[in-house]
Specification:
Leucine-rich repeat, LRR (right-handed beta-alpha superhelix); 820 residues; alpha/beta; globular; 19 helices; Transferase(Phosphotransferase), domain 1
Length: 820
């Protein structure tokens, strides 16, 4: 029998070489099939050839300094298996490219048009420049074009109008120019359009404003001009056109305004609008923000605005509004911010403003208001900012208002009195000189006026001589006693707490801790004082001593402190605490009638709350400064928790103070140890009203390290967003609002715009990582929150250059080590 052809060859090396080659080839085929199967198991098939080529061209057009695209280096097998960073596929076709915050530069290749199944292109917060490729018109399945915070320039290609399935376009914070292409409105599904912070010119295409699906439209800070288009989009909820060159009158759209029933925000400030505010705005019952400030709008204040019961923020400042304010202000029950400054409004201030219990900011300055300031305004417990300066108001400022707000809130009203030591009220305030019966019978002649002025001057000089004489007598009587006391202190060496005999008329007790200077009780009690603020604990004064030194004095409320023996034991412990991020207690005074004063270093830059929220638009706060403040606050809190075993219990941005270099000094720590239980309960309630209270405190009523971490997280969110926690967004607090925005993948809407403009290089990653940490701190579950030690560690990892700078300034805290 003849052998098969295969065995005709002899049993030689050639035979085995061919056989081994055959076996190796078969094994390779099997391995390749296995790889294909593995890749196919994730998306159904291998990546299509045209998509592979499109991705390679896309990669080569970008600059990738951090090497994020190194994973895009195989023959395409990993593209749809999850191995290629930022790529998602379905059945071998690329449906999403998501590469935000990667520091990418370069430009986008025109070959992106080969990715014909692409649904989302998200490249925000990078350094990509050049033009937006016209090839986007080939991406017929595109739903989201997210390119904000880059360096794109030139015009937006009209071909974008071919993408009829577009839901969202965000090209904000670039350098785009030219006209806004009218073709953008071709998509009947477009619900979000953000073109802010570019250089667009011309008019807004009429078709965009008429899009029935559009809910969000923002073109702020461009060079757009012409009239505001007729808006008939029934679903529009957010309209921001501020900082452009729009002209014409607002009544150009009266009919359409009344139809926008779901509109929640109208922002038209800093344009060239004139005319008057249409009454139809009063029918927008869902409206929460109306800002038409810095235009040339005239006419009377429309009474229909008082129908907007959902309104939270109303800003009509810098216009030419005239007439009286309506008495129906009390209908605006949700109003938090009201600014009508720099108009021509007149008449009396309506007392119904006092019914706006949620009001936090009220600015009526630079108008022509007359009459008294309603005493009922003192009932606005949430009011943090008040300005009625430069009007024609008269009479006495209500006492509670003059205590809560300084003189700058009331200056420029010639007939207003009682708001500072230099504006005393007459002895009979009910009969001021301008309205007394005598003044109506006979006008004073020149001789009468001269005699009156001379008499007042002589009386003032006599009074001044008496004061100076008494002062000299007191100084001479106390000099010998104080000299002996100071001499004895010098011989004994510097004690931890030096008690000075105040003697004289004060009859009290002053105890000093270490500090930059020493003063007597008389120096303290005779200091020039200016109210800086009030809290549940008491009133804080800026005190200028006779020698010109400044201190902050907290006068505790009556009947809220512990007994004198317990008080002294606790306050002597607090006086020994020293740390570079904690406000040092320098002295305390116990008065003969139970008064209790605490003396601290004076912080020239005030509180973080004022630093963030009371500054002008021309004073930005950069990211390193904000991060330094977050680290300093964490360091101070960490020292309290882990070195001296103290829970703060009332950490807010109002008691995070800033020195000359904007370094943090936490205030009000340990004050709970000086107070009664009832007083501490009130503090917890107040913290809740301001938005810093952890949710579990509503039931437990006892602060812990985790409730302090929650407050720290809120402060971090405050620094990131620039928003005050007391200002609820859409009825939810700041942590809830931030979480909802992040969950919807619109993280850029969270950050303060000042930060977004500077989010280059590593700053983008730092912002994102800090946001994640802050959300971890405000987790509703206390057990899920980190301890402050871990928060500090992560902050230092996020910004290591600031970490080293901050670790060299701590004062020794050894004395306070057992303060717990």
């Amino acid at each position: 029998m003849e052998a098969p052809p295969f065995f005709v060859l002899d049993n030689t090396k050639e035979y085995w070489r061919k056989k081994n080659h055959f076996l190796f080839h078969s094994l390779c085929c099997l391995l390749f099939s296995a790889m294909v199967a593995a890749a196919s198991s994730l998306d159904g098939t291998l990546i299509a050839e045209e998509d592979y080529q499109g991705l390679q061209a896309f990669k080569h057009a970008l600059i990738d300094p951090r090497g994020f695209l190194r994973s895009w280096n195989d023959t395409g097998l990993g593209a749809c298996s999850g191995a290629w960073l930022g790529i998602k596929c379905v059945k071998g076709k690329v449906i999403a490219i998501q590469l935000p915050w990667r520091g990418l530069g370069g430009h986008i290749s025109e070959k992106i048009g080969q990715l014909t199944s692409l649904r989302k292109l998200s490249l925000h917060n990078n350094l990509i420049g050049g033009r937006i490729p016209s090839a986007v018109g080939f991406l017929l399945d595109l739903r989201g074009l997210v390119l904000f915070n880059n360096r794109f320039s030139g015009e937006v290609p009209p071909t974008v109008g071919k993408c009829l399935k577009l839901h969202s376009i965000d090209l904000s914070n670039n350098s785009l120019s030219g006209d806004i292409p009218a073709s953008i409105s071709n998509s009947s599904k477009l619900y979000r359009l953000n073109l802010s912070y570019n250089n667009f010119s011309g008019e807004i295409p009429a078709g965009i404003a008429k899009s029935l699906a559009l809910t969000f439209l923002s073109v702020r800070h461009n060079a757009l001009s012409g009239p505001i288009p007729d808006a008939t989009a029934y679903n529009l909820q957010y309209l921001n056109l501020d900082e452009n060159y729009f002209s014409g009158s607002i009544p150009a759209i009266p009919a359409s305004l009344g139809q926008l029933r779901l509109l929640r925000e109208i922002t038209l400030n800093n344009n060239q609008l004139n005319g008057s505010i249409p009454e139809e705005i009063g029918s927008l019952l869902m409206l929460e923000t109306l800002d038409i400030s810095q235009n040339t709008i005239g006419g009377n204040f429309p009474a229909s605005l008082c129908n907007l019961s959902s309104l939270i923020r109303l800003n009509l400042a810098g216009n030419f509004l005239k007439g009286r304010l309506p008495d129906s202000f009390d209908k605006l029950g949700n109003l938090s911010i009201l600014s009508l400054k720099m108009n021509h409004l007149n008449g009396h201030l309506p007392s119904t403003i006092a019914n706006l219990s949620n009001l936090t900011q009220l600015d009526l300055s630079n108008n022509n208001f007359i009459g008294h300031i309603p005493a009922s305004l003192s009932q606005l417990s949430k009011l943090k900012f008040l300005n009625v300066s430069d009007n024609n108001l008269s009479g006495r400022v209500p006492a509670l208002l003059s205590e809560r707000f300084n003189y700058s809130s009331f200056i420029g009203n010639i007939q207003l009195c009682g708001y500072s030591s230099s504006t005393p009220c007459p002895l009979n305030p009910s009969l001021p000189p301008s309205s007394s019966p005598e003044s109506h019978r006979r006008r004073l002649n020149t001789r009468d006026i001269i005699l009156i002025v001379a008499g007042i001057a002589i009386a003032f000089l006599l009074l001044l001589c008496c004061v100076l004489f008494c002062f000299l007598i007191r100084k001479r009587a106390n000099f010998g006693k104080q000299s002996k006391s100071m001499e004895g202190a010098e011989k004994a060496g510097p004690p931890a707490a030096a008690e000075l005999d105040t003697g004289g008329d004060s009859g009290g007790k002053l105890v000093h801790f270490d500090g930059p200077f020493v003063f007597t009780a008389d120096d303290l009690l005779c200091a020039t004082a200016e109210i800086m603020g009030k809290s549940t604990y008491g009133t804080v004064y800026k005190a200028t001593l006779e020698d010109g030194n400044l201190v902050a004095v907290k006068r505790l409320r009556e009947k809220i402190a512990k007994s004198q023996k317990e008080f002294e034991a606790e306050v002597n412990v607090l006086g020994k605490i020293r740390h570079s991020n904690l406000l040092a207690l320098r002295a305390y005074y116990l008065g003969p009638k139970g008064e209790k004063l605490l003396v601290f270093d004076f912080m020239p830059n005030g509180s973080l709350a004022a630093f963030l929220h009371a500054r002008g638009p021309d004073t930005p706060i950069n990211w390193p400064t904000r991060m330094s403040i977050a680290m300093g606050t964490a360091r101070g809190l960490n020292h309290l928790h882990n070195n001296i075993n103290i829970i703060h219990g009332n950490l807010t941005s109002s008691n995070v103070l800033l020195d000359d270099d904007h370094d943090v000094k936490i205030a009000d720590y340990g004050l709970a140890r000086l107070m009664t239980a009832a007083a501490n309960s009130n503090v917890i309630a107040t913290a809740g009203a301001l938005g810093y209270r952890a949710p579990e405190l509503s039931k437990l009523k006892k602060a812990s390290t985790k409730t302090d971490v929650y407050s720290l997280g809120v402060i971090m969110l405050e620094l990131l967003t620039g928003k005050s926690p007391g200002y609820a967004m859409n009825g939810v607090d700041l942590p809830q609002w931030v979480a909802s925005i992040v969950n919807e993948e619109w993280t850029n809407e969270v950050f303060d715009l000042e930060l977004m403009r500077d989010a280059s290089g590593n700053a983008g990653d730092e912002l994102l990582n800090t946001l994640k940490l802050a959300l971890h701190c405000v987790d509703p579950s206390p057990t899920a929150r980190p301890e402050v030690r871990e928060v500090l560690r992560q902050l230092e990892e996020i910004k290591p250059d600031l970490a080293m700078a901050g670790m060299t300034g701590d004062e020794g805290g050894g004395e306070a080590g057992g303060a717990g």
